[in-house]
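dumping these here so i dont lose them again. two proteins, back to back, each one seq then structure tokens. dont judge the mess
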Amino acid sequence: MSAARITSPDALSAANLSASPVDDGLAQTLPLTRAERQWSFLDVLSVKSGLAIATWAFLFGGTTAQYVGFRDGVLTMLAGNTIGVVILLLALVLPSAKWGTEFFVHQRSVYGPVGALGFVLVVVVALVFAWAAILATMIGKSAVEIVRIAMPSVLPNVSLLQTTVAVLMLALAWVILIRGSASVRLLNRFAAPGLLLLCVWLMFALFSRVPLATLLAAPAIAPHPNRAANIMLVVELHIAGGISWGSLAANLGRYAQTQRAVVWGSLVAYVPVYVLAASVGLISALVLGSADPVSWMIPITGPLAGVLLLALLAIANLSSLVGMVQGNCQTLIQHGGARLQQLGWPRFTFMFFCCVAALVLLASDVLYGRFYTLIAFSEAILAPMCGIALADRLLLRRNTVILRALYDTSVNGPYAYWGRVNWAAFVALGAGAAVYLALLNPLTMTGTALFTRLSASVPAVITAFVTHVLLTRVVVMRAGKGAYGP
């Protein structure tokens, strides 16, 4: 492959990189040209709003209520999400939006082909299956409540009904997904307005039952004695939430017509729209004792309205499920090798959903109970990754990339480093993760005195940034690895 620098994604297309016929899903794992990017600002906003307004937004709000009250909760959610999303956009989303590359393929320039594959195995395989199973389970929970209201005389087997609906929704998500990115966009064009209506309706229902004075006076559920520590825990929670969109936000952002559409569509969806949904969970946890809308939606709104809102909540989780799988299955296919790519998009995604269905049958309740632990431990990896990505793109490579070399996975490729792994980048990643875990214990949710002032994510980002710059200039560049330099 040529090592000439490419200055525009128009210069490469799927046809340039592969002579073999590929279907829509497989072709989109290669760099997208300008002509292949069809999503406007409204499309980006609707798809990412569909992702943001789901059960996890309510759960984040409920976790916030554990440590702070309403006023502090709203302010800290806004602050934390803004910090996290800005870091996410600058470090991870903009490179894929500019070059049209799949996220982890782009990371080959930083970690090497085998190093990037390691991230796929850890970040995607270990986490995406878990998130998909949680979303499908929550759709099943909504269905159980709807049946209880619609047929009060019938006492169904709750576990069987919940699991059956979850598996059926996985099948529906697959049918939507195999029609390509256009179907994802169309689903969210209709779903996003309804989901916004869901949040506004729930907010109105809560405020109609709970006076503002009562809400403002409601104490946090289980705070630590130190108010500053409580506030920083919530800020950290939402920084982690913003960054945790990670590769999914980057891969979906590739479809946007412009980088401006990616930035503003993502920023609006992941901050004000998301915080609106999280605030519903915050209020319900503070005054009703539960952040899960499935448990309190019908008592608050009444049977008819409650059933409608539960249906909208199920649609929210379905749209999140489809969007998540759309972005991450591209990653799995791109890095899975020729045999996996030969399966084709429909067959591969079918296998993916079968694995998620097995997880729903075996361990979905356990995963749901460990929701925040998953977020916190993934943040110990994603925060340093952002620091390394910022250092590599802005300071070391100055926003350039050898686009063809990203697809050269040989031992002699420009991004092969040592044995196709950039060990220096992994040292920087480990340093950032160590700082994060030293400042905050994800299992006990307790932080050090330094955490109360600095958070854990921001020091992890800075540590990884500085370490990567130093090791690259002292070790990698002097060894002539990684195609750094003019």
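---- next one ----
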Amino acid sequence: MNIKYQQELISLLTNIKNIKLMNEFIKDILTPTEFEEIIIRWQIIKQLSKGVSQRKIATKLGVSIATITRGSRELRDKKGGFWKVLKMKNNLCKKLI
């Protein structure tokens, strides 16, 4: 993957502050299946971080254990991006309450 292209996309995404515009952009750039997969992956990460079992997640979301296992492996890195974003999300939710 070309790092310049990757950085350009990440920069673009982080600069879209309007939720409606972000939603429209994501729906335009991804196929409906790709968008759904990202949504499900995020739900997997959130549930794993709360200690929900892989079997319960698989049943609830209708995904394979293999799909969940990848997320589980990534969550083992406590300094990784998933944990940083989960922490950011939790702090944002606290501010909204």
